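As a warm-up, study this chain.
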Amino acid sequence: MEPDPEAKPQRMPAAPAADAPAILTNAQETDIFAWANNLFLHKEKLQLEIFLLSKTNILYRTKYAEALGRQTHPLLLDGILEYIINGAGAGLVVRSFEAAESEENVLQKTKVANVDKLVEAMSWLGTQEREMEQFSEEDHDLKRIKGIIVRVTHPEITPFYVIKALSAANILKGVGAWMISGNKFDALDGGAALRIPNDSQLLIVDDELYVFNQSKLERLFGYNAKKNAIADQKVRQIEANFKLSFADDLTLQAMVKESKPLINKLQKLDPTAVKQKDLLDHADEMGLELMTDDDGAIIIMDSKDLNMFVNLLNDDYVESPLTGNRYEIKSKKLLKFDNEE
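Now compare it with the structure written out below.
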């Protein structure tokens, strides 16, 4: 978004691959404290373009009146810069989600490439900007917008991005939306009103995503960084302990990332508690069609096969000694007796 409606938006460098935004290609580690200090020197000359992000992960261009330009820096940048610059003097530590739990005076981060829906959204700026539509309330519905992505540019810095989530409480439109002008209320003057949250939420610098608010990351892009980090670890353990054979173009890592129920199930699962032979024997006893190839690897053709494998690994199939009925257990609690800790 640009104050001058006639000005052309700055384009990101073309991505090296059709499906990879340019922000994913920088492999260097960013010193976020040096970055913030350098940015502060150019703060008053930064150009901001604001894009609206829909619930279907589509980006729209926007324009804003010049009078709003005075509000953009305080709302979108000042909180982030103050947090980082002041934090440097107070011992603020930057850690990846994989390295530690969130705690006071710690800024957590992850790779942009780890968040699939964020990569999908950013691809609009990397490879699809020509196709991006201009947002208008007549053609699009502000109620279907879930967030904003702000591209910040300056000739002497690499573009970076500020992201904020929007909720229904941030949007006013239609009958019942009033505004106050002078000493009286009046109907909202056409269109809709949008309140921009003033808290710090998400920041992209190079290929790193800095997370000031974990709940907003999950709301916008369905990514729970800690759960995904644990799931990644469990996937590596499964690959080390089991022989699996996947259909073309499928991998265990990719299939798990696409399934929130599997990510949740992997949180407390112990992939080393069961041996492959025992798992296959149990599948046979339960009448489950878990196939193996000539090398003895468990064949995973689709999500149904993977769910069955993980359920077996989690001991979710039981046969009742009373009725002989077989069940898939959705939830279970381990019995403990008085002599057990």
